[in-house]
Amino acid sequence: MKLFNNTETAFKLKSDSELERAYFLFKMIQNQPMVRIGTAVTNFALKAHLPVEGLIRSTVFDHFCGGVTEDDCLPVIDKMFEKGNVHSVLDYSVEGKEEEESFDDALNKIVKIIQFSKEKKSIPYAVFKPTGFGRFALYQKLSEKKALTVDEKSEWIRVLERFHTVCKLAVEKDVPLLIDAEESWMQDAADDLIEELMETYNKDKAIVFNTLQMYRHDRMDYLRNLYQKAHQKGYHIGMKVVRGAYMEKERVRAEEKGYDSPICADKQATDINYNEAVRFMMAHKNMAIFAGTHNEESSCLLMDLSKEYNIAVNDNRMWFGQLYGMSDHISFNLAAEGYNVAKYVPFGPVRDVMPYLIRRAEENTSVAGQTSRELNLLKTERKRRKL
Known about the structure:
The chain is of the alpha/beta class.
């Protein structure tokens, strides 16, 4: 679409040196062997406590992350909002922690972000992962319908308390909550819990949002069933719709364990599934959509549907979302047309955020065309500036 070819609007916030860094990074990401080697070297260097954090910080970290703390992210957030009308979602991207203490820390972080969001128009949502509040294995055990031990029951009660604490605060402060989706073998427990939270807290509008990963071929059925339940019980559905982030992992596990992969057969099937979810949500009232997508066709579809259903570009039930450091041609050009757009801005200590960054790099290499599109746009803008 012509709108997304406007590189002047897309990159107006980037200095010449930031533009060059972005070009260099995407050039590296385009090279699959380079990503594999870089990932292995980085993991080794961090485990061996080699002094590489400065190098990581000045390259990949600063391009894809807002900073180490929330306050670090403020200059980035303010600049995007004031100069580009693009909002931010602060994403505490520390992964893989398993202790109660780290779950309580994550809870305190989210509470702080909700309060932060209430004060700042530029931060319309708070976000967290289910495993930020509880152990992966606990969700998995519940998803597999296995009985919990006495200790695990107490542990699950603490998980529930964390969820209710943030949901109550979100309602009180009127700040919607995006709850990310994770691997399929723990997701059923998260889905069941989030449905209960929607029923409790989404009486008047969508405050609690679940996430649908549309590379899973069962998600349209899930969405239709959820709609029926919500319709009968009289609550609103909030849904972040994404393609998904754990594809390789899902396929490998399915093969190893000998079950049918939950992932769509190919990219085209995923695209069809994603667009069907967008159509379904736009066609039904009492639904709010946060379309997390780097796909131009899906973005155009949502724009067309908003016109078809007479939904204003700035209606709060419809948001577009992209990751910080990616797809600026979508984010900034949509925002220039008045649409609600938010960038996911990850933050956290460099060392702790590395699993997130590595996943981003691997994801980019596996999505054919995505990185070359970024590179072509960056090339175009470099040429435009030289002229």
